[in-house]
Structures are given as C-alpha cells and as structure tokens.
Amino acid sequence: MAAQTNTPPLLEVRNLRVEFPTRRGTLLAVDDVSFEIAPGEVLGVVGESGAGKSLTGNAIIGLLEPPGRIAGGEIRLEGRRIDNLPYEEMRKIRGARIGAIFQDPLTSLNPLYSVGRQLVETIQTHMPLSAGKARDRAIDLLKEVGIPGAEMRIDHYPHQFSGGMRQRVVIALALCAGPRLIVADEPTTALDVSIQAQIIALLKRLCREHGTAVMLVTHDMGVIAETADRVAVMYAGRVAEIGPVREVVKHAKHPYTKGLMGSIPSLGVRSEKLTQIDGAMPRLTEIPTGCAFNPRCTFKGQRCLVERPNLMPAGATQAACWLHDAGGVGAPLPKEAVHA
Amino acid sequence: MLAFILRRLLQSIAVLLTVGLVAFSLFRYVGDPINSMVGQDTPASEREALRERLGLNDSPPIQFLRFIGNAAQGKFGLSYRTSEPVGRMIVERMPATLELSFCAAVFALFVGVPMGVYTGLYPKHWSSRLMQAVSLIGISLPTFVIGILLILVFAVWLHWLPSFGRGETVMLFGWWPTNFLTVKGLQALILPSITLGLFQLTLLMRLVRSEMLEVMRTDYIKFARARGLTNRAVNFGHALKNTLVPVITVTGLQLGALIAFAIVTETVFAWPGVGQLFIQSVQFSDIPVMAAYLMLIGLLFVLINLTVDLLYFVVDPRLRSQGGAARVAGH
Amino acid sequence: MTDRPATSPGWLHRITDSDIWWSFKSSSLTVVAAVGTLLIVVIAFLSPVLAPHTPFDPATLSLSDGLKPPVLLSPDGDWAFPLGTDDQGRDILSSIMYGTRLSLVVGFASVVVAMTIGIALGLISGYFGGAIDALIMRIADVQLTFPAILVALLIDGIVRSVISVQRHDEIAVFVIVGAIGLSFWVQYARTVRGSVMVEKNKEYVQAARVIGLSPLLIMVRHVLPNVTGPVLVIATINLGLAIITEATLSFLGVGLPSTEPSLGTLIRLGNDVLQSGDWWITVFPGITLAALVLAVNLLGDWLRDALNPKLR
User: Fold this and answer.
1) pLDDT at residue C13 above 80?
2) Residues of C with Cβ-Cβ distance to B263 under 8 angstroms
C-alpha cells in the first residue's frame, strides 16, 4: 500500500483485453484487467491454469502468440505506452527494461550454444560493451546467481547444468541488462520441490538488491505468500481480488480467494479443514452471464446470475463480488439451484 | 564419441556385407556366369574345367569371400553385353555422374534451404504460399517429365542449351573428363542439373520450412525474443542452427538418392554416366554390371552416412559430451 | 437389423460432424484435389465407353492420320483427334485415357501389395520379436538405404534374366506391381511393428492369453484399427510415388511394353520424336501424369495434417 501512494507506478495495465479468434468464434481470454506495479514491488498473480495470468504476462512483454492479440486497453511502462509499439521498438525494451523468466529452464536455453554465448549476446544487444567486457559481466552475473566455478562454467552447454542451475542461468539472462521489471511466469513449477524455495529466495534477493520489480505469475499460493508484496487473484480472464498479500491471505474478501487460501497446505499451522472449491473453472467458451464464479459460489444471489461485478473496495483489498456492494447479492436463490 | 563412431563403422561394414551378399547372389545364382563366357557349342567337359578354374565349384562361403575380395580391388568380372571389365566401365563413367550429382546438389542446397527458411519464417506471406504450392507441383512432377519439358523449351524451341550429352569435356589428371572447364561443357550441365536437383530442392525446402516452424514454437526461441535479441539473431543464430541436424541427415540421404536418381536424368539427357550404364544392364540382364553398380551405390551410401554422423558432432554439443547418438533428435 | 435406420444417419452425421470433415471442407484446395482425383479415376475407368478411339487396335489406325497437331492450337488439327495424333495415327486423347487407367491400376495394385507385405511383416516382427524381428528390421534398414526406384529396377532386372523377353512382356504388369510393391513395404512394417510393440504388453492381450484366445488374433483386431490412420496416410502418399515409379520404369523402357502403354510409356514414345517438334505426343500425357500425382499428393498431404495436426 505504501509503495502505491507516493511513487508513480512502474507498470500500469488499464482495462487490458486479450482475445483469440478460433474456429468457434472469438474467445476473450483476458477481460478488462487492470493493475499497477510500483518500482521494486513484487506483484503475485495467481489463478488456475486458463485464468489468463500467463497471457497477461505475455501481453506485457509483447510476445502474445498469434492468433492471440490485444483487443483493448493499454499497458504503460514508466508512463510510456508500450502495448502498441512497433516490433523493433518493443524489442529494445524487452531484455533491457523488462526481463522475462519462463516456466521450464530445461527448454528456455538454446541447447546448441554455451551459456556464456547466450549471456554475451544478450548483454551486447542492449549494452555498448566489448566482447571481453561483456564476458566479464556474464561471469559476474553467473557468480551473482550462485553458480560455483563461474569462470569455467561459462563455457559449458545447457545440458551440462542441472534444472535448478539452469533456472539460475535463466535468471542471470533475465537480469543481464538491468531491467526495471521482471515478468516471471511459473519460474519454479518445473523444478524439484527442494530447489523451488532456493530459486524463489534467489529471485527475491536479487530483485531487492537491484531494485527490480517482479510480476510473479504462479498457481502456487504458497510461493506468493512468501514472496509477494501484493497479490492479484485471477479467475476466468478477470481479476477477482487484488490487495496486499497479508490481507488477501488472511482476510480474503472474494469467495473464490477464500477457497483458494483454504487449499494452501501450510506447514506451520494446521487448519481445521482443507477447504476445496467444488467444480472447475468454466471454459472460456462457456463463461456464464453475471459473475463468472457463480456456478461454484455458495454465497450467490439473483444479482450474481445477471450482473457482472467489477473490482470494488472490500476492506483492505479490492474484490469483484457483490457481497461487498451496498446492493448485496440480491434475492436468495431457491435451494436446489445452489447445488445444481 | 569414439565408441559411437566405432559402432557406426561396424554397422556400415555389416550393411556393406549384406549388399555384397545380395550382389553375390545375383552374380552367382541369377544366370550362369559360365554361359556368358563361352559359346553355345562349348562341350560340357570344357565348361566343367572352366567352372573348376574359376572356383565356381568351391563352397558358397569361400566363393562369397572371393567375390568380396575381388570387389574390394574393383574387379567385378566381364560385362555380359560388351565383354569389357566391369570395373573399368564404371570408372570411365563415374566422373560424368559425380559432376552431374554435385551440380544438382549445389543447386538444391543453395536454392532450397533459403526458400525453406523464408517460408518457415513468414508462413502466411503470399510468396511463401506460392512457393509452397509450387513445391508441391515440383514433388508431383516426375523427374523425367521435368527433363522433357526443359528440353522442349530450352533446346527444341529456344535453341539456347544442348539437349543431350556432356558437350565438350577436358581431361583432368589424364583420366577424369570434366565439364567444368569449357563453356560448352558448362552449358550441357545446366538442364540435367536442374532436372536432377529440382526434386531434392523441393524436398529440402519443405523440410527446412517445417523444421523452422517447429523450432520457432520452442521455448528457447520465445526466450531469445524475450531477451530482446534482434530478429536476425533469433532467426539465423538460434532457429536455423537448430534445424541443421535434420537438414544434414536429409541432405546426406538425398545426396545418395541423387546418384541413384541420376539413372533417370542420364537416360533423358543421354548423359554418359553410370546410371545410363545401369539401365542398359537392366535391359540386357547384364548381371555383373548390376551387381557392381549395387555395390558401388551401397558404398556411397555408407560413406555418406558416416560423414553425416560425424557432422552431428560438429553441430550438437550434447553429442560431443555424451558420446552417444541416443538424443540426436531430442530437444 | 431393426436399428439399421437409426444408425445409418448417425454414422453419416458422425462423419459430417468430425474434425476431419471440417478440415476437409475448410481446405478448398483439398476439395479441388479430391474432385480432380475422382474425375480422373472415373474418366480413366470409363475409357472403353468415353474414348473416341481404341488407339491400340491396329485395325482402326491409319497412317494418314499421323502427327496431327492439337486442334485448338493449329489449323491442321482435326476435331476427330482433339489432342492430336502420334506418328502411327493414334489419337492422343484416347491413348491418355487408356494409359491413365493402366497407371492407376498398377499404382493401386502396388500399394495393396506393399501394404499387405508391410502389415504382415510388421505384425510378425512386432509380435514375435527376437531374431525374426531383428532379421526383418535389418532387411528393412538395408532396403531403406536404397531409393525405391533402384530396388524396383533391380527386381525387374532379375526377373528379366530369369525369364524370356516374350514371356516378360506378357507378365510385365505383374512384374511391375511386384517390383514396386516390394520396394515400398518398409514404412508400413515399421508403423505396424511400433504399434504392436506398444499393444503387446497391455493387459487385454495378457488377459486374452489367459482365457485361451489367440493373442495374435486379439492383436490383429486391436492393433489394425489403431494403425488405420497412419497406414492410410502412408498409402495415399505412396500411391503418388507408386504411380511415378511405374511411369519412370516405363519411361526407362523396363516397365510396361508399348503394346500396352501406360502414361510413362506414352511419354517415352513421344520423347523419341520430341526433337522434331511434335511436342503434343509427350506433353499431354506428361501433364496428365503430373495432374494425377499432384491431386493424389494433395489428398495425402491433407490427410496427414488432418490425422496428425502436430506434424503440420
């Protein structure tokens, strides 16, 4: 909250819409999503697969895979609009101002080039450094991400590194031109559980030291709880709830977030019972009218079936749920409809 | 790595021996070699003596070993048709075929690969669609039809290029007649090379295209873009190099196929190479020439495959350190 | 029997509702190719009815009709011979229609031979494994080293040296079908073998063994439906190749004799007089051959994409 009030936002996403033309009509995969990230802030974006969180990340780095495209809204980086830049302009921003980390370190690196070559080419693309200077910087980066024997390892090929070590190399690659923001898309999902915590800790430490903001996309609420300053919960292409991480975890205001928090297997505290949400997230082709969550919601009323809620203040967070509107959820529904 | 090469070497020898066995069976059991060497009225006793002298009464394994031994020295007996030594006939005609195949391969590689890269990078562009459509026609047109159409247009109608033969050749090192040193020789090469290379060109183009499309979807290409690398670096530095392994494989295989397909092109253009010799030997059931040709093609394929295997090591670092071919196609 | 009326439209509906049908309809090129193939096949097989002449009955030929150019391209043309005649006075159009029929028959028959050999060897290889498998697969490897045309040429050459020339002309069609069939079996065998290897260890095969059913029979029943898709794709692509191979062999003079000409033979006959400028004798059969193979290849390409979208 403090970060939001004083400093101008680093990244500003306003009413973003991403659509996919398909054989059965156009799908709206990201629907009217808005959020901000302050300099140095870690924003967690959480949701089930298909909720639109990765697409939002891809839209920000300008790498939506065709036929997906931005259909509306705007994205601003340091006040400059970047969603409509020509490819070449956006290319200069990628890597230099916005870094990216993808899910699978095993496939993110080109198997045919040494990690050093991949680091040096990225550094030299964005910085006017000689080959020797770029190599020195590459070695420093490898040391910084905790790769032992960096001077020797720089000439090794990706297949000679373990999964965790490869993700460290990927982080070095994302950081190598000193970006202001890193979009990390499921950075630990493909890794061993034992290594996940190390990588998250490393990412968190490096970003704090460099003052780099992070948009951390994950479906793992545990990772968010440990890492993020604020969290945005996405459901069926929309933001269901957004707010400071402590508030969202402890005092979730959206019924979906409550269910999601209930499913974190926390190690320290034994909760009374593991809450599970019945049903599954609707497919993009079958999003119901009204609130997209209404088929699974136990608090729904008549209004939820017809009118779609936008984000509204709910305690210390913002939630897209009529429960927090003065008008409420409307008339209660007949009993059998609840279980239908 | 050494173990891998050794294993491939052993496999190659096994393939060669199998081909040798087929060639030997042809030579020995299809048609009687004695009949072709003596006249109709030669008495049975004389035939038997000759049979004994040639070792045709020895046990088959011994005969096979002798056949292989002779083959290794280039001795394949006498042609039934011309009574010339088969080895010499082949050596005389080899340069013509090799020069033709070389030109066709250069044409296919240097036109096919760039076209494949272009159509792979811009699959939706109209020119890519056009090239893709034309390539399908190229694959559907049989080699000899292409040759005939080229002859019709450029030789019969326009009189620009010769329609048959090697034109003028110059002896290189006293025994290798080459087309490359005279204008007439080079002119004579043009139509046959295009005819022979066109199929391989379309094949390479389609292969490079589909490999490029495949590679462009990989995570490391997306990550290379996310690092802000220039299009040039992404397309040619990262994507093209990853398509090389299958391209090398197919190019190698096609190089062998070129030499075999030269049979058709040589017939269309009356090109005096080993392919033409082979087709004559099939028409006249000239078994020694067929057997020798088979061995020759087998040897060429094996040599090409070994070269291809060695090239893998140059391209793919995973093979260099693992020392095995287990993951050639892996990602 | 009673459910017949109910299943029949359901079956049709299943086809029209399937992804394959959708991909077929959405590719206009494929529809054109399918219509083209169908048209060529129908015309070729109706040639005894449709063809204006019977070109290979010497009694109907007259040398005075020789070397007439195509009617639309020259004032010397004769409407009785729309695509012109060859030096013997044979009508090119009729020759092409009969020749196409022969090319199609040989092509189909070779594919059936290759498919039968390939599926049988693939089943045996995958099911029995061990030495038999190793032997079959090594033969396949060695054969794959050589282009199919070379294998077919060799087989033809061997048959020629075993039987007399006259006898060879009589059975030329069978020799060619056998030679081409034997040179294309490897792909089928590999596909079927792979599928058998996967199915062999599944529980239903083990279960069948326990209840005393022949596991081989069970495998045939379960594996064959599984490989129908890939085998169909290979067969379609091979049909184009087989037609080209037959044409090439005939063109080289080791295929079908000139008394019974296929498209390849026609092209060879025309090629012999090409230098004198009588291009139509060779060009029209050439175009027909190319159109036929192109249409078949387009169908094969589409079928491969439709059944295996990953391959693109």
Assistant:
1) no
2) 149-150, 153, 252
Which helix (H) or strand (E) segment holds residue A107: the answer is: helix A105-108
Joined tokens for residue A236: 């069926």
**Confidence bin at A273 (pLDDT 50/70/90):** very low
Read off the pLDDT band of B37 (50, 70, 90): low
The total domain count for chain B is: 2
Domain boundary, last residue among B14, B37, B72: B72
Check CB contact under 8 Å for B228 and A92.
Answer: yes
pLDDT for position B160: 87
Tell me the residues of C at the B interface, defined by beta carbons under 8 Å apart.
138, 141-142, 145-147, 149-150, 153-154, 156-158, 160-162, 240, 244, 247-248, 251-254, 267, 271, 274-275, 277, 279, 282-283, 286, 289-290, 293-294, 297-298, 301, 311-312
**Dihedral in degrees, nearest 10, Cα atoms A129, A132, A138, A143:** -130
Domain that holds residue A275: 255-339
Instruction: Answer yes or no: do B229 and A125 touch at CB < 8 A.
Output: yes
Nearest to B148 among C286, C297, C311 (CB): C286
Closest CA to A264 of A230, A222, A218: A222
Whole-number mean pLDDT of chain A?
84
CATH of the domain at B127: 1.10.3720.10
- Residue of B149, B261, B290 lying closest to C157 (CB–CB): B290
Contact between B282 and C282 using a beta-carbon 8 Å cutoff: no
A98-101 and B176-178 beta bridge pairing:
unpaired
Chain B residues inside the 8 Å CB shell of C161: 30-31, 285, 287
**Does residue C175 sit within a domain?**
yes
Quick check: B222 and B130 in contact, CB under 8 A?
no
Measured in residues, chain A has a length of 340
- Is residue C82 within 8 A of residue C90, CB to CB? The reply is no
In chain B, residues 204-243 whose CB comes closer than 8 Å to chain C:
210, 213-214
Distance (Å) from the C-alpha of residue B69 to the closest C-alpha of chain A? Answer: 43
Q: No. of H helices and E strands in chain A?
A: 14, 12
Predicted structure pTM score: 0.76
Q: Are B50 and B108 within one domain?
A: no
* Strand partners for A215: A43, A183
- The pLDDT tens digits of the residues spanning C77-103 come to 666 677 777 777 778 888 888 889 989
> For residue A16, what pLDDT band results from cuts at 50, 70 and 90?
very high
**Residue C3: inside a domain:** no
Give the Cα separation of C85 and C61 in Å (integer): 10
Q: Which domain holds residue B297?
A: 86-330
Dihedral angle sign, alpha carbons of residues B12, B14, B16, B22: negative
**CB neighbours (10 Å) of residue A296?**
17
Quote the pLDDT of residue A311: 87
Output the six-digit token pair for B254: 């096609």
Q: Tell me the average pLDDT across C105-110.
A: 93
CB distance B220–A108 less than 8 Å? yes
Q: Is residue B113 part of a domain?
A: yes
Q: In B, which residues are within 8 Å of C274 by CB distance?
A: 148, 151-152, 156
Give the residue on B whose Cα is nearest the Cα of C294. B140
Instruction: In whole angstroms, give the CA distance from residue B183 to residue B198.
Output: 23
The total number of structural domains that make up chain A: 1
- Chain B residue with CA closest to A101: the answer is B223
The total domain count for chain C is 1
Whole-number Cα distances in Å, B8 to A149, B2, B3, B179, B309: 36, 10, 9, 35, 8
Question: Can you tell me the ipTM of this complex?
Answer: 0.83
d(CA C31, CA C22) in angstroms, rounded, equals 11
Domain-embedded: residue A260? yes
> Is B318–A126 a contact, with Cβ atoms under 8 angstroms apart?
no
